[in-house]
Each structure stands twice: as C-alpha cells, then as structure tokens.
User: Which sequence fits this backbone?
C-alpha cells in the first residue's frame, strides 16, 4: 500500500538553488517502534483513514523509500541568546518533503534524524523526552487556537543518546507551514549572499502570499505582515501564559507559527518574571520579555533585508509592532473577560487584574476558567480588598456592554481553557513512556485536544502542580 496515496508532494523548497540546503537521506534506527501517532493531524494532511501508523513508521525511519520525497537539510544562521552565530542549519533535522493540503503547503520534517553538514560537534539525535514534549505542546497550542507546528508521529528506538545521562533516541515527524526562519535571511545577508535573498523572498511570496506577487511594494508589505504575525503570535502566548524558552532568531518561523519550542513552559501561578528555561541565566526569555524579544527579532530580520527594502519602510513596520501587539493582546483579554465593547481604559482594567493575580499568586489558567462566576451574586473569586476593588471596577465596566451576562459567560468559557500542558503532566507522561508505557502520552494528547471542554472524568488534569512538580527543571538539553 502506498501510504502517500492521495497526497500531493510539491517540494518547492528543494527546487531552490543549492545554496539553501544539502540534499541527503537520514539515519534510520535499527529497531524503531511507535511511540505516538496523531490521527487528527493525519486526517488534516489527507492521509487515508485506514492507514496503519506502522506503515508510516517504516517510511519515516527510511526503511521504505518514498520516491516523492526530496529530502534535505536546510542551512541558516541566527542570534542565539543575543549572540550572532554565522552558520547554523538543520543539525538534526531533515525536510522530508513538502505537501499540498487544502489549507496550503505543509512541510514534513523529521527531527532527530542524524548528522548533517550542520551538526557541528553534536550527534544529530533527539532524546525521547524532548520529542514527547514537542509532540504534546504542538497539539496543546494548535487546539488552543494558537498557530503552531504540530507532530504526526514519534518513532522510538533503543539507540543510546548521551546527554547528562544516557537516554534513548527518538525521531519526531513534524509539520509546519514553513521551516524558513528569520535566521535564513540573516545567513544570506551576513555571509554576503545577497543575490539569494530575493530568490528566497520570491519563493515565500509565491507559496504563502500569492496575492502580493504582482504588487509593486510586495517585499515591504510582506515584511509588515511578518511583523504583524509575530506580534499576534506573541500576544497569543501572553494571553494563555505560554513561555517559549528559546526565542533565538533561528527558532522564529517566518509565518508566525510557534516553533522549535524546547524548554517551553505554561505558567501556573501568575508570575511575569517566569523563566521556563533553566539554562536562561539572565532571563532574556522570561515571560514578560517575550513581547520585546519579538520586536528585537523583527529588527534582526529587518537588518537582513535592508538592501532589499528601504530603511524608512522597515522602520515604519517595526514601529507598528507595538500597536499590533497591544491591539491583539487587548482583544484576547477582552474575550477572556467576556467583554465585547472596546474601551481605551480596558488596558488599565487588565493591568490591574494581572497585578492582583501576581500578588495573590493565583493559578492563572484556573482563575480565568472560573471567572464566569463573576456574574453570580455569591461568588468567592476574590478574597482580599485589592481583588474586591477590581471586581467592582469590572462590574461597573460591564454595564457598558450590550450583551447579556449569559452570553458574556459563554464567551469566557470558550476563551479560557480548562486544560493546558502543565509541566508536571508532561513529566508524568514522559516517565511512563521511558519505562515503555506510551498510554499517558496518548491520553494527555486527547485531553489537550479539547482544552475548552469540561471533561469531568479528567478533572485532575486541570489541577495546579503538586509540590514535587514545581521544582522540575527544564533546560536546553534535548
Ligand atoms: P535548538 O536549540 O534545538 O533550536 O538548536 C540550535 C541549533 O543546534 C540548530 O542548528 C540545531 O540543528 C542544532 N542542534 C541542536 N541539537 C543538536 C544535536 N543533538 N545534533 C546536531 N545539531 C543539533
Ligand atoms: Mg532550533
């Protein structure tokens, strides 16, 4: 059976100049086994519903060749923790192929696929725990309505991989609209390969912005849209309490999808200084720094495009970033508060709520999930004076709404998730998987697939971390 029956490969990235990649196969595992398979994503991609995941496993392990695949490792560069690194690239990733779906082009990429010319001194592999975290997080984000890469399957192995301890290797087959990063353009600019910048830009416009292709100002409009989608993505992160962990420019998707998230974390009690990545000593990527880092990264992209787009146009778009970000963020918070009318003063209302949450160390997700009770006369959402004062302000503000309390409550429940990927939940799933039981990965993925549903059977999965889970440390090691 051809597992790709009905799937259309396009491989347009592989048709660009050789400058952009090294074409190669990848390194199979000797005895791979299936850890997880994402049926929903398989259906979205157009795979046959009767498809046996074991068949896909053989293809992505490289045991059965796929004539439509034109596999390659991409080259790029980037700013890592603010430091310029002139040459990076897919050191452990392979772009297996690009397929056409009704929603547009999708990359099929294998992470942990062995050495490539860009591996530097590393082994080209990924450990099981990091592939499970990425698999779960992609699903969690996507189902929260936040653009994100997703994963189709995880292949496990018995191959030892050496990190702080000896672990086993795994490969993650992930999808994304693109694997083109800010760092792709930085690589071309700072390695004096200017002529290729327009080739890559034209490819991006052809594939992702076909309406711009004929426009005179196409490149500057594209840059403005990139600034905008980056601001929108980060506003989404802030509203849901997500910290990415490694917002290096090589981990920034050109299309504003959450991407390459290693040591990410969902905030539990509200703490703007939250640092999810244990290796981030200076807190560069702390929760509250993410919006500013998003702008910093757009500036790095602008610097890479400065010979193609006029400086004043770049500056104009960079200046738009803040407005885009706050406009998206206030809209998201209005939804979370069950409000529809737009008022300038809403920003202040939101800020004072966040200040209350910070002081009271309240669980961020559960606070918002319960907030619909504000419309009940007897609620005990707020214990102290600061909270009660906020409640009064909120009820006063609600009088300006045209919608009923019931509609407002409905809005809150469809915008405030009950289930997020709490670190301790991922940890439990990983521990089980490391001992050969993958059921918790599947169960957790299923719960996270419906984050806005009550799912009473899984009430426990909405609870804040127990004490032991609060001290888990997640680092860059993956
Ligand atoms: P990351 O921190 O995962 O975004 O990776 C940063 C860069 O290091 C990318 O160019 C990766 O391809 C590369 N890299 C990370 N881990 C490995 C590894 N185990 N083997 C080879 N390259 C790696
Ligand atoms: Mg990366």
Assistant:
């Amino acid at each position: 059976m051809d597992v790709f029956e009905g799937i259309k490969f396009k491989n347009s990235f592989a048709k660009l100049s050789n400058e952009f990649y090294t074409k190669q196969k990848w390194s199979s595992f000797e005895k791979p086994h299936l850890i997880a398979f994402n049926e929903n994503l398989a259906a979205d991609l157009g795979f046959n519903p009767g498809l046996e995941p074991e068949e896909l496993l053989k293809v992505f392990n490289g045991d059965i060749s796929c004539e439509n695949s034109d596999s390659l490792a991409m080259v790029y560069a980037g700013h890592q923790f603010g430091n310029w690194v002139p040459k990076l690239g897919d050191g452990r990733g392979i772009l297996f192929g690009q397929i056409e779906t009704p929603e547009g082009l999708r990359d099929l990429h294998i992470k942990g696929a062995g050495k490539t010319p860009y591996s530097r001194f590393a082994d080209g592999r990924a450990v099981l725990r990091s592939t499970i975290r990425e698999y779960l997080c992609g699903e969690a984000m996507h189902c929260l309505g936040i653009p994100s890469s997703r994963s189709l399957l995880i292949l496990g192995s018995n191959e030892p991989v050496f990190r702080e301890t000896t672990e086993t290797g795994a490969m993650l087959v992930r999808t994304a609209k693109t694997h083109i990063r800010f760092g792709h353009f930085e690589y071309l600019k700072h390695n004096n390969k200017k002529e290729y910048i327009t080739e890559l830009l034209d490819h991006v416009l052809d594939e992702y912005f076909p309406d711009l292709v004929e426009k005179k100002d196409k490149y500057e409009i594209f840059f403005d849209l990139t600034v905008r989608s980056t601001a929108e993505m980060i506003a989404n992160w802030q509203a849901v309490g997500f910290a990415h962990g490694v917002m290096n420019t090589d981990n920034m998707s050109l299309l504003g999808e959450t991407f390459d998230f290693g040591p990410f974390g969902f905030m539990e009690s509200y703490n703007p200084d939250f640092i999810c990545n244990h290796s981030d000593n200076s807190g560069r990527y702390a929760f509250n720094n993410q919006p500013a880092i998003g702008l910093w990264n757009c500036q790095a992209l602008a610097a890479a495009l400065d010979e193609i787009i006029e400086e004043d146009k770049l500056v104009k778009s960079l200046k738009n970033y803040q407005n885009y970000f706050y406009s998206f963020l206030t809209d998201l918070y209005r939804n979370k508060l069950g409000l529809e009318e737009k008022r300038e003063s809403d920003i202040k209302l939101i800020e004072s709520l966040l200040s209350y949450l910070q002081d009271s160390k309240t669980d961020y997700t559960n606070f918002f999930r319960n907030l619909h009770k504000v419309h009940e006369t007897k609620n005990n959402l707020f214990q102290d004076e600061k909270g009660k004062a906020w409640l009064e302000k909120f009820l006063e503000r609600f009088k300006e709404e045209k919608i009923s309390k019931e509609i407002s409550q409905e809005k809150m429940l469809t915008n405030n998730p009950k289930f997020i990927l709490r670190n301790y939940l991922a940890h439990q799933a990983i521990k089980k998987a490391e001992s050969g039981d993958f059921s918790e990965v599947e169960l957790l993925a299923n719960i996270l697939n419906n984050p806005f549903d009550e799912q009473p059977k899984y009430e426990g999965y909405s609870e804040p971390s127990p004490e032991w889970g609060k001290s888990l440390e997640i680092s860059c090691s993956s």
Observations:
- The CA atoms of residues 10 and 98 lie 6 Å apart.
- The two ends are 35 Å apart (CA to CA).
- The longest helix spans residues 311-336.
